[in-house]
Design goal:
Pfam family, one: DUF2911
InterPro entries: DUF2911
Keywords: Signal
Helix content: 10-25%
Organism: Pedobacter terrae
Protein name: DUF2911 family protein
Number of domains: 1
């Protein structure tokens, strides 16, 4: 009986030691220098309390690169070339209902956003392909709509690429800002 106790005790100790060896600490990746962010329209949609009728119409998931003292448009992001509209994965927009952009009706669903920045105007692109890294595999044949919008020059630079919405009659303007550049894309619904 004493020998059985010793064997069981030894097995228990061995088992406990073996479990310790398999639970090694996981090395997590470092924080991304271009953090992910989300913006909704209406802006308060994710914070609405239970029973509040505010429901999202638009949700955009994007990464926010920083200026870090660099010249952005025309240098880092060259004029006339397709840009991923942020950093990392291509920016994704979800429309919870039909919207109208540049006179084109767009069904509810998830799309990617790209831009072609130029000095005085930008082409904002809504594309049907999602889950892509950057604009490296951008396919123009998948464009849903392209809209040219004027550039506004800001007096003070914006450090992080930033998106927000402002309400307009019958919809919202998607306001895009980075460095000393701001553009607005009207979306109606």
């Amino acid at each position: 009986m004493k020998n059985i106790f010793i064997v069981v005790f030894a097995l228990f100790c061995f088992s406990a030691k073996a479990q310790q060896g398999t639970s090694a600490e996981v090395k997590f990746p470092a924080a991304d220098p271009s953090p992910a962010d989300i913006v909704y329209f209406p802006l308060n949609a994710p914070k609405a309390k239970a029973g509040d009728p505010t429901k999202p119409v638009i949700k955009i998931v994007y990464s926010r690169p920083q200026k870090k003292g660099r010249d952005i448009f025309g240098v880092l992001e060259q004029y006339g070339k397709v840009w991923r509209f942020g950093a990392n994965e291509s920016t994704e927009v979800r429309f919870f209902k039909k919207v109208n952009i540049g006179g084109k009706k767009i069904k509810a669903g998830t799309y990617s956003l790209f831009a072609i920045p130029n000095k005085d105007t930008w082409a904002i692109i809504v594309n049907s392909e999602t889950d892509k890294w950057g604009a490296f595999t951008y396919n123009q044949d998948k464009d849903v709509v392209r809209v040219n919008v004027p550039v506004k020059t800001l007096s003070k630079p914006i450090e992080y690429f930033s998106l927000t919405f402002t309400e307009i009659n019958g919809g919202a303007n998607l306001v895009i800002g980075w460095d000393r550049t701001q553009v607005e894309l009207p979306i109606t619904f």
